[in-house]
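Human:
Take a look at this sequence-structure pair and walk me through the tokens.
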Amino acid sequence: MKFNLMLGLLCLCFSRPAISTEYIYRDLMADTLLSAKCESPSKAKETAQKSYKLRIFSKKFCQTQGYGWHVEEIMGNGEVDCDECTSNAALQQCRLKDVSVKCKRIKPGTVGLLPGKG
């Protein structure tokens, strides 16, 4: 028991200090896709502004930047932009325009072993 305690203290004293993780940040602005179906104007605007759609599209915006990019923060929800349907002028399809997202990824070389380094 004493041996395990002493061994643990020795390992704690001589272990390397933890290195903090550094991140790279990038601000993006993009538009969501039009809704899939034609709806009444009020319903179409409500569908376009759902928080679920905003989360899904902001995640896709960051993932288009490449491997390892994630959503840090949704900075702006954007504005609703609607188009009339071709089949019926009384119905609309809406989307969010100019959604602002802050994306982040781990800075290469700050965590773990570097390739080719012993």
